[in-house]
Amino acid sequence: SGKTYEHLLVSSPKPGVGFIQLNRPKALNALFTPLILELNSALRDFQADKSISAIVLTGSEKAFAAGADIKEMKDLTFSHAYGSDFIESWSDLVTFLKKPLITAINGYALGGGCELAMMGDILYCSSKAVFGQPEVKLGVIPGAGGSQRLPKAIGKSRAMDAILTGDNITAKQAGEWGLVAKVFETPEECVNGALATAEKIARYSQIAVKAAKEVVNKSQDLGIREGVEFERRVFHGLFGSQDQKIGMKAFAEKQKPSWTNE
Ligand code: HXC
What we know:
This protein is 47% helix and 16% strand. The protein has 12 helices and 10 strands. It has helices at residues 33-48, 70-73, 78-83, 88-95, 112-118, 146-154, 156-165, 171-177, 187-202, 206-218, 224-238, 242-252, and strands at 8-14, 17-22, 54-58, 63-65, 101-105, 108-110, 122-126, 130-132, 169-170, 182-184. Strands 1-2-3-5-7-10 form a 6-stranded mixed sheet, with helices on both faces. The two termini are 24 Å apart. Hexanoyl-coenzyme A binds next to α2 and β6. Keywords: Fatty acid metabolism, Lipid metabolism, Lyase, Virulence. Belongs to the enoyl-CoA hydratase/isomerase family. It comes from Massariosphaeria phaeospora.
């Protein structure tokens, strides 16, 4: 979009793909308010940009993000936190984004960094990535979804273990437990893998992709019966799209579909 940011690098390195790199290296990408506001703005721009179909979010090799900014939080009072609904701006990051977000996690993803990573629709990491919710060591608890998303991702007992001890989760554990979809050897492979997946998704009908993301996300909130009914309604709705006709006609005629996104 041509905007420049102080704490982000934003580009579109492949057709249909938006790329955001957190860029606050001196603080290991600690997530302070100015960075979160920029991230919201960059994601909103990609959401509005018709040429962008999928987004990759990453940090540096050393840190995806080492957490919410402890120095910014340390003097916060209850009345200010409650009154300003501190961290509420973080929840914007997921609720409005309809396009797939892949988080490519290298290095530390701790506290708010782990929570931000888990806001991705798909998580990829490299072999030296370190996850964790160490808030208990600071006298607090996760505040941006960690206590809810981590148990959904890895199960209650493992999540309790991590959150009550503050111990790290290794990349190997993250892969075995399904916190991430893939573990790559190197950070470069991880980012390239995320970009390749985003590019692949960007080549499908954006109507189908949007509907698929919406129904999978519903599975996190709804019971199985309501979820399956919701899925069926959305499935029915897609027979009102041109791309359903195009996709199925192309299969029957052994052609490649060319999507209209309508
Ligand atoms: C502010 C941070 C930071 C953080 C690192 N830095 N993490 N500043 N908030 N979360 C700063 C350090 O103060 C230091 O600044 C610089 O980044 C480099 O960090 P070092 O500690 O010198 O690096 P290293 O020895 O390699 O250790 C890396 C580390 C450690 C293990 C990741 O930095 C660490 O433990 N960080 C805190 C992790 C954490 O507790 N995260 C959860 C935060 S609470 P200077 O100026 O000294 O060079 C949280 C709550 C979320 O996230 C709730 C809702 C959002």
